[in-house]
Amino acid sequence: MWLHPAPFDIHEGDDVYVWLRSDRNTGRAKVLSGPIAPDPAALAAAQPLKTDGTPERPRGDVATRYLVRYAHDGSTCSVNEARIHRVYPRNEQPTVIVTFDTTHYRRLARSQVYPPDSVLELGSSYGLCTTILHEHSNGQVIGIDNSSLLVKECQAKYPHMQFECVDVMQHGERVDALLQGRTIVFVDIGGDRCLEDVVAVLSFIMEKMKEVQLIVVKSESLVRDLEERDCVRPDGWIEDAWWPSIHQVVKTLQGQALLGSDRPKAEPWYLTAKAAQFVRKPSRYPSRVTADGQWICRVHNYTRAGCPKIDACAYNHSVCHHCLVDGHRALHCPIDGPPA
Question: What's the whole-model pTM score?
C-alpha cells in the first residue's frame, strides 16, 4: 500500500509517466539515463531571486532533466524532472494507493492506467475522472454512482461511455458482477466518508475482485488515520501492519455502536462542523442527494435564516443534509447530541 503523493527517486530503467499538456495516453516512458544537471553558470543566470534572497524554481530549460523513451512510439526525449511522475509497481497482491484530494486522484487516473487495463470507478459523480480513465484504458471503463440524477446527466453528456446507478453499500451483488474481469478499481465514495464505510468497500473489492492489480482510493479518513499512526515511510510506502490494524479499529467502532444504541451515528465531518458552530459557508459542506436523487439545499440546512429562495429553490428543503431523514435541518439534527 502507498500514500500519494510522496517524494520518490528516479533511476535508470524506471517505468514512469511524463506529464503531458493533454489527457492523451501517450505519456508512459522508461528512463534511459540521468540526471542531467543544468550548467551552473546558465542556472545562476536564469534563476531570479525571491525577496528573501533565495532562488526561484529553475526554468524548464535549465532544470535537472532525464532522458526517457516513450512507450507508444519509441521516441526519446530529455524531460524536466518536474514532469516525471511515479508509476507504482503491480505485484501478485493488489497495489493500493491512498490519496486525499481530487487533484491527485485524477492525476493517478492519468499516470497509473494504460491498455489493456479494464477499470471500474465507484463514485463517478459528474464523470470527469471517468473520462480520463476512458481515454487511458481505451474505453474499458464503467462508472457507477448512487445518484440517479448524476448518472442520467453523465449518460446524456457522455453517451459513448457506460454509467450505472448502483449504491455500493447496498447492492453488493451488482457491484460483484461489475467487478468481474476488471484489473483496476478507482474508489471515491465521498472524500469525507466515514472510516468504516471506506474500509468495508475496500475489503469487499479485495475479496471479490480476483483479477485486481491496482486499487486507487480517495479518502480523507484513511489519510487522517495514517497520519495519526505515523506508519508511512518517507517514500510513501505504508507499513504492512496498518491494514490489519485498521480492520480491528473498524470492528471496535462497530461493536461500540451496537452496544451503545441502534441509532445512527454522526459523521466525523458533521461533528467537527457542529463543534465550530457551523461557521463555514454552506457550499463548503459536501454535496449530498436524497434517496430519489434530488440535491439537498446546503444553504437551507446550515444558515439559521434558511434558504432565501424558498419555493423558487431547485434543491430539496425537507431532508436533513446530515442524516438524510425528513423533517428537520442539519443545524438541528438530533444525532449524537442536542440541537446546536
Answer: 0.70
